[in-house]
């Protein structure tokens, strides 16, 4: 999925190429460590360290220059999310998800699960996590497994949770390996979290 610095494929002429300054600023200020669309895994930002104001401005500028690049919409969503502007975060994530971002689907699921300054719906959270998992993103696989494991948005399903934890672990998600151990020892309802 990662193609140079443009993760959702080459942009068409009507999308415009992002200016180096706007694109690099948005990426530097708001790329998630677990997002496969992040152009440089060494230059990502943990959510707690994200400077929302600067990231919002940079990502809005990047989107203005390249509106079809999903990573910019996702990163804008993260910045709004960090700021606590959850409705704005949802809109940015939704646009990124429409463009194919599995990371955005994960974060939409988290918005629904947490319900802070946003609609609380475990059923919607589980559905978004499932959609993210099916895109092949390890974080989505993990979050869907957590929902299945803990009965978030539906009945617990230890066998299905195990399947998704295994898939996430196979793609390097350490917390999925830890959850598998707990699931094997204690059965469903491990209390593992996706946030």
How would you characterize the overall build of this protein?
Pfam families: Sel1. It comes from Methylobacterium tardum. With 195 residues, this protein is mainly α. It has two domains: 1-10 and 17-102, Serine Threonine Protein Phosphatase 5, Tetratricopeptide repeat (Alpha Horseshoe); 121-195, no CATH class. It is built from nine helices and no strands. It has helices at 20-30, 52-65, 70-83, 86-98, 102-114, 122-134, 138-150, 158-170, 174-186. The longest helix has 14 residues, at 52-65. It is globular. The two termini are 24 Å apart.
What is the topological layout?
Elements: H1 20-30, H2 52-65, H3 70-83, H4 86-98, H5 102-114, H6 122-134, H7 138-150, H8 158-170, H9 174-186
Helix pairs in contact: 1-2, 1-3, 2-3, 3-4, 4-5, 5-6, 6-7, 7-8, 8-9
Instruction: Look at the structure and name the CATH superfamily of the largest domain.
Output: Tetratricopeptide repeat domain
Residues in β-strands, percent: under 5%
Shape: globular
What is the name of the CATH topology of the largest domain?
Serine Threonine Protein Phosphatase 5, Tetratricopeptide repeat
Radius of gyration: 17 Å
Oligomer kind: single chain
Helix content: 55-70%
The CATH class of the largest domain is identified as Mainly Alpha
Distance N to C terminus: 24 Å
Helix/strand structural class: mainly alpha
The overall pLDDT average reads 90
Just name the CATH architecture of the largest domain: Alpha Horseshoe
Q: Major sheet, described briefly?
A: none
Question: Low-confidence stretches at least 5 residues in length (pLDDT < 50)?
Answer: 1-17
Task: Give, in order, the helices and strands.
Answer: HHHHHHHHH
Q: Tell me the total number of β-strands.
A: 0
What number of structural domains do the residues give?
A: 2
Helical stretch count?
9
